[in-house]
């Protein structure tokens, strides 16, 4: 039985998620948007239908996204959601990165464990303290050791370290989102300018939520670095809220967790996963 083929498609810049989803749906109905700037899709059947290789299909998808909507994208291809997502994060220079099933261990193994898709900073720190520096180290640990270090969540993380991801793509499953962003006139260090911009964005986002009778259940913070890397992290709120202070605390908590230190930023964006306030 052939391994499934997952595409993880990232937008190089924010905005255009709905349009990107529409493009990919022309190739497969098994598409799930991932706010704020990615889409995951399962294309095993589409490859048979179009009679092309995964890389050829990815290039065709990128060309249509650029031609119709001016979207710049990168595509990761793998046998699981995790592998495809990690491949897309390393496709910036070439546009498409495919990791064949036979190459999965060789691709994931040398990467820093903190870059494993879905791992939290605190989990990576716990592993680092015990000398587990690489994804391959996590994959090779005895299962009971992983559970002792990370709790029950460790089982899933170890599977991802081995390229296994049991999640399936749920077509059309996209939370309603609201987003705001600020571009700095010059690259700035994390400090008062970044915090002031975050506060302005949080205030604007909270006001928009309240005007629509909605509240946020989670917030995603996206920062664009001077070297063109993007960092994003999502924090679930203790309870749904549209209060500025609740959102501000969540945003500042994520910024603190990035550990930006002397990194220079050129953009910050916030995305709220919105639900009806009632």
Detailed description of the structure:
- Helix content is 40%, strand content 27%.
- It is built from 11 helices and 9 strands.
- The strands form 2 sheets. Strands 2-3-1-4-5 form a 5-stranded mixed sheet. A 4-stranded antiparallel sheet has the order 6-9-7-8, covered by helices on one side.
- Strand 2 and strand 3 form a beta hairpin.
- Helix 8 crosses helix 9.
- The longest helix has 20 residues.
- The chain is globular, with a radius of gyration of 19 Å.
- The protein starts with 5 loop residues before the first strand and ends with a strand.
- The relative contact order is 0.12.
- The model has no long low-confidence stretch (mean pLDDT 88).
Shape descriptor: globular
Task: Give the helices and strands as they follow along the chain.
Answer: EHEEHHEHEHHHHHEHEEHE
Helix segment tally: 11
Number of strands: 9
- Helix percent reads 40-55%
Poorly predicted runs are none
Proportion of beta-strand residues: 25-35%
The Cα radius of gyration reads 19 Å
* N/C terminus separation: 48 Å
Largest beta sheet: what is the strand line-up? Answer: 2-3-1-4-5
Average predicted local confidence, pLDDT: 88
- What's the main sheet like? 5 strands, mixed
The structure class reads alpha+beta
